[in-house]
Automatic annotation (TrEMBL):
InterPro entries, sorted: ADH-like_C, ADH-like_N, ADH_Zn_CS, ER, GroES-like_sf, NAD(P)-bd_dom_sf
All residue ranges annotated as the Enoyl reductase (ER) domain in the record: 8-343
Taxonomic lineage from the root: Bacteria, Bacillati, Actinomycetota, Actinomycetes, Pseudonocardiales
Protein name: Alcohol dehydrogenase catalytic domain-containing protein
Pfam families in UniProt: ADH_N (PF08240), ADH_zinc_N (PF00107)
UniProt source species: Amycolatopsis rubida
């Protein structure tokens, strides 16, 4: 089969690899019908995730058709159309029983495109298939479903829920890329009083307005002063870091008011300073986290009910064999205006 293979920092190749096959009795093999590229895949290519070894098939988001199931799989059958979660879960360990699937002690967590071959391929082996897939209703399209494999639960859980967004609050999102836009989308479910987006790209800031931000601010200006002015001198109740850079994390700690919360989503490949000499007396809560995908069923239900529109994230479409071209375009998002690209059979 063909797949997108990580060849080391800065190098990737659409190449022939061994066919995906069952390894454990809890596995399923899924034929990919739709996948998408994540900012985390770009972090891997930049060498920010050294645990990913050369030769790994990238990708952790997909929709597809079940081809085979292991002997211990009870909830899936060949022919089922499924959402493949970006997080795998054994379903039995202490963390899985608490729905903290990212910290699975039974061999799960972030596996696909990280510790095992991922979804940027014609077929993928899905570990712990009963717990790591969702059978899809006919009313949910492949494109909509693949947005709920990672980007929407990540934004909802690690940004909005960790940030404890409440009605009437001021929320600032630093980094209006796809994840930041998903934060804006899911934050609106809690009716905050003000949503502010801070970014460098005029195109991304325009997208933030379309997705529901009330105010957009250029990072080149003075966002700290602007947010203070917009909030009566206090700062934001919640500041969400959606980039993964030292300067954006440190900016979030300056944007938040006393008693506020900084929710970090970004994947960080280098150290960021934590200025405790300024923060210790301000009652600031800082959260980090890898998505658990525990909210995926709720997001799917909202999509079915018409309360959530995942299709607005998709700006470009490619055939699966055009993976290299899709990466080229996504890597130049500031130039191309790409938000999410979908690759389909």
């Amino acid at each position: 089969m063909k797949a997108l293979v990580y060849r080391g920092s800065g190098r990737r190749e659409w190449a022939e690899v061994p066919d995906a096959a069952l390894v454990d009795p809890t596995d399923a093999v899924v034929r990919i019908t739709a996948t998408t590229i994540c900012g985390t895949d770009l972090h891997i290519l930049r060498g920010d995730v050294p645990q990913v070894e050369p030769g790994r098939v990238l990708g952790h988001e997909a929709v597809g058709i079940v081809e085979q199931v292991g002997q211990a799989v009870t909830g899936l059958e060949p022919g089922h159309r499924v959402l493949v979660s970006c997080i795998s879960a054994c379903g039995r360990c202490r963390y899985c029983r608490a729905s903290i699937y990212s910290q699975c002690l039974g061999g799960g967590g972030w596996m696909l495109g990280h510790r095992v071959d991922g979804t940027h391929a014609e077929y993928v082996r899905v570990p712990f298939a009963d717990w790591s897939t969702h059978v899809l209703p006919d009313s949910v399209t492949d494109e909509d479903a693949v947005m709920m494999s990672d980007i929407l639960p990540t934004a909802f859980e690690t940004g909005v829920r960790n940030g404890a967004v409440q009605p009437g609050q001021a929320v600032v999102v630093v980094g209006p890329g796809p994840i930041g836009l998903a934060v804006i989308t899911t934050a609106r479910l809690f009716t905050p009083g003000l949503i502010i987006a801070v970014g460098r790209s005029s195109g991304r800031l325009a997208a933030a307005k379309r997705f529901g931000a009330d105010i957009v601010l250029s990072a080149a200006d003075d966002p700290v002063a602007a947010v203070a002015e917009l909030t009566g001198g206090l700062g934001a109740d919640v500041a969400v870091e959606a980039v993964g850079a030292p300067e954006t994390f440190e900016l979030c700690t300056r944007l938040v008011r006393p008693g506020g919360r900084v929710a970090n989503i970004g994947v960080h490949g280098e150290s960021a300073a934590l200025h405790l000499q300024q923060l210790w007396a301000r009652n600031i809560t800082i959260t980090t986290g890898l998505v658990d995908t525990s909210t995926t069923p709720a997001l799917l239900a909202m999509s079915v009910a018409g309360r959530l529109d995942p299709s607005q994230f998709v700006t470009h479409r490619f055939a699966l064999p055009e993976m290299e071209a899709a990466y080229d375009l996504f890597e130049r998002a500031a130039e191309t205006g790409a938000l999410k690209v979908v690759l389909s059979r």
